[in-house]
Structures are given as structure tokens and as C-alpha cells.
Design goal:
Belongs to the radical SAM superfamily. RlmN family. The protein is built from twelve helices and twelve strands. The chain is an alpha/beta fold. The structure holds S-adenosyl-L-homocysteine.
């Protein structure tokens, strides 16, 4: 992917894709292999300053320092949960804060990162939506979250090989924000996550979750082959319009068409994860499960049922465990692979939709809803 390196805006090394690094090296009169060497220092060895790159001459390091900084966001608060989930409140330069969550499982460690400060979409059951939108995160701020988590987990320390579930083996763009509304920075960050000289994660292990910004999905398949999760939450337009209002602009039929194109016309991981939040008496009836199975039957994928995580004045309740199991049974009998997401980190408010952060709402939505 071609990245334009703006001298003003992008000075942070964590924001540069490999092609951009190549371009920068050319500009400062360095050979192309230098770009690979720098990336490896940063992402493989975890160098925290340009001066750590000891096999690069001092003169070259000075040149690099005149163009680049290596700057990570800072940890404001560190909250470990009883179940091993970890939430960090991250301070950004602008004075805003975002949250980042690490979820250890048996054989993997999943890092949930944010793509925006707040969110401009107004999904009715999500607490981030209540805070309104402040700004997009830069590429460096998105990549910086992964680097910061790896450091905090001690991945770069000595020769100790951490067990799989104490390392960042998977990244999900499921924190605050709608990733496809921050298209350029998010796709550049994904590029760095997947690149062999970057974090080198496989496309199966990096998942972008979207509420369904259809035109951006078509653009995504041109530049990336990352795994896709779709926040479906309802099998009919009437209900989805209410829960995920962007559906009024891009209704289900169009969304499903775009999903199909994404997995069939690109080299993407060929299975979609359909996310479906379980809301008591709203979308959890037996007929909803049948309708859902019918809707997605032609597209390879699996359903992930997410128990609703309540927050004050949400107006919703989570479906009972009985209902959730019944819903899953129906889907499975219809041939749809279905999992139920274990709710993690509840005691620290790190579960889905509870990522509060601290947002200065530029849309002033918080004020309007409070008054
Ligand atoms: N904007 C993106 C990514 C952020 S949300 C998207 O919509 O996909 C990540 C997932 O958590 C989405 O499926 C979202 O719908 C879900 N979610 C949001 N609030 C929730 C809540 N209170 N309980 C359970 N899941 C929630």
C-alpha cells in the first residue's frame, strides 16, 4: 500500500508502513535494506530509541533522528481483572484517554485496540456511543497500542519465551471507535501488524470489527486481507435500524453483498465472524435465530453471540443464559457454527461496550443527552 509520508504530520516511526520507510530511506540517501533493518529493530527487537540500533552508523542514526521520533502513548492506569483480563487506560498527546484490553485464553493472547477517541456512530446498546466522537487515532497511536501492550507483557525482555497466552498473538480492532471511519490510519496500522518486518501477525490473527460501512468495505478489499467481524445484531432491517443506525444508510442486503465480495474477491481469510449481542426480548426470540441463520447461510462464517454488557441507563438487559443457549442450538441445527463469547473483565468494566476512556465530546452529544 502506498503511504504518503507527510513531513509535518507523521514523524512518529510507529506510523510508518514498510513502503513508507523505504521511501524515507531513499529520501535521506540510504539503501533500501536500511528500511528493513530499522523495522526489525523496532518490531522484532523492541528498540525504544533510534540510538539502540547499534549496527547502524552514528551518522545515519542522526539523519534518522532529524526526521523521526519513537514515541509511545503512556499508561495512565493499569487495571488487572480477577480473570486475567487486563485493562489499561492510555493517555494520548491531545489529553484524551482511550482504553486497551488484553484477554488471555488457553493458547493465545488477544489485544483489543481502539481506532478512534469515542465513536460517531450511535449504536443504541453501546456505551462508547454515549460519549460522542472526538477524533481519529493516528496510525502511530494504533500501532503504539500493540507495542505498548507487548512491552507491558514483557515480550521484549531478555530471552524468556513467554507462554502463548501472555503474549499478543491476536489483535482485534474492537475497542472504541468504528475502524472503517478512520480508514487510512487503520489500514496502515494493519499493514504494519501483518508485515513480516513489522509485528508479522497472520491475517487470521488480526480482525477488524465493523458496524458495516459498506463503501469502505469495498475499499478495504483492495488494500487489505485482514479478518472481518461484522456487528450484525439483528436479522431484519427494521430492528437493525434501531440498534445499529448506520443500517439506515447501508441496509442488510447491501452489507451482506459487500461481505460476500470481501471474502470471495480478495485473498482475505475466508470466513466472516458475525457478532450478535444478546438483548433480552429485543433480538433473542427463536424466530430471530431462524431468520439470522437464513440471512447468512450463503456466506462462509460463524456467529459469535455476545452477552450484553449492561451500563447505567442503557435501557437494555442481557438475555438469560437459557435464551442464549436456545438461540445457539437453533443456529447450530441450521448448520451455523456458533460460539458464545465468554464475558471477560466485567469487574473492571473492560467488557465490550464498556470502554469508557475519557472523551471530550466534539459532537456535544453527551451534553444533549444529559440535558
Ligand atoms: N465499531 C466497531 C467496533 C467496536 S465495538 C463495530 O461496531 O464492530 C466491538 C463489538 O462490541 C461490536 O460488535 C459491538 O456491537 C459490541 N458491543 C458494543 N456495546 C456492547 C455491549 N454493551 N455489550 C456487548 N457488546 C457490545
Amino acid at each position: 500500500m502506498k503511504q504518503v509520508v507527510s513531513k509535518e504530520v507523521e514523524k512518529n516511526l510507529y506510523g510508518l508502513t514498510y513502503p513508507a520507510m523505504l521511501e524515507l530511506c531513499e529520501e535521506i540517501g540510504e539503501k533500501p535494506y536500511r528500511a528493513m533493518q530499522i523495522m526489525k529493530w523496532v518490531y522484532h527487537k523492541g528498540a525504544s530509541s533510534i540510538d539502540d540500533m547499534t549496527d547502524i552508523s552514528k551518522k545515519t542514526r542522526e539523519k534518522l533522528k532529524s526526521r523521526l521520533v519513537l514515541e509511545l502513548p503512556k499508561v495512565l492506569l493499569d487495571k488487572p481483572s480477577n480473570d486475567g483480563t487486563h485493562k489499561w487506560l492510555i493517555q494520548l498527546e491531545s489529553g484524551n484517554a482511550i482504553e486497551m484490553v488484553f484477554i488471555p485464553e488457553d493458547d493465545r493472547g488477544t489485544l483489543c485496540v481502539s481506532s478512534q477517541v469515542g465513536c460517531a456512530l450511535e449504536c443504541s446498546f453501546c456505551s462508547t456511543a454515549r460519549q460522542g466522537f472526538n477524533r481519529n487515532l493516528s496510525t502511530a497511536e494504533i500501532v503504539g497500542q500493540v507495542m505498548l501492550a507487548k512491552r507491558l507483557l514483557g515480550e521484549y525482555e531478555g530471552d524468556v519465551q513467554q507462554s502463548q497466552n501472555r503474549r499478543v498473538t491476536n489483535v482485534v480492532l474492537m475497542g472504541m471507535g468504528e475502524p472503517l471511519l478512520n480508514f487510512t490510519n487503520v489500514t496502515q496500522a494493519i499493514d504494519i501488524m501483518l508485515n513480516d518486518y513489522g509485528f508479522g501477525l497472520s491475517k487470521r490473527r488480526v480482525t477488524l470489527s465493523t458496524s458495516g460501512v459498506v463503501p469502505a468495505l469495498y475499499r478495504l478489499k483492495e488494500v487489505s486481507d485482514v479478518s472481518l467481524a461484522i456487528s450484525l445484531h439483528a436479522p431484519y432491517d427494521t430492528l437493525r435500524n434501531e440498534l445499529v443506525p448506520i443500517n439506515k444508510k447501508y441496509p442488510l442486503a447491501e452489507l451482506l453483498e459487500a461481505c460476500k465480495a470481501y471474502i470471495t474477491e480478495s485473498s482475505a481469510y475466508r470466513k466472516i465472524t458475525w457478532e450478535y449481542v444478546m438483548l433480552k426480548d429485543v433480538n433473542d426470540r427463536e424466530e430471530d435465530a431462524f431468520a439470522l441463520a437464513k440471512l447468512i447461510k450463503d456466506i462462509p462464517g460463524k456467529v459469535n453471540l455476545i452477552p450484553f454488557n449492561p451500563f447505567p441507563n442503557s435501557g437494555y438487559e442481557c438475555s438469560s443464559m437459557n435464551r442464549i443457549n436456545r438461540f445457539r442450538e437453533i443456529l447450530q441445527r441450521q448448520g451455523v457454527v456458533t460460539t458464545v463469547r465468554k464475558t471477560r473483565g466485567e469487574d473492571i468494566d473492560a467488557a465490550c461496550g464498556q470502554l469508557a476512556g475519557r472523551v471530550n465530546d466534539r459532537t456535544k452529544r453527551t451534553k444533549t443527552t444529559n440535558s
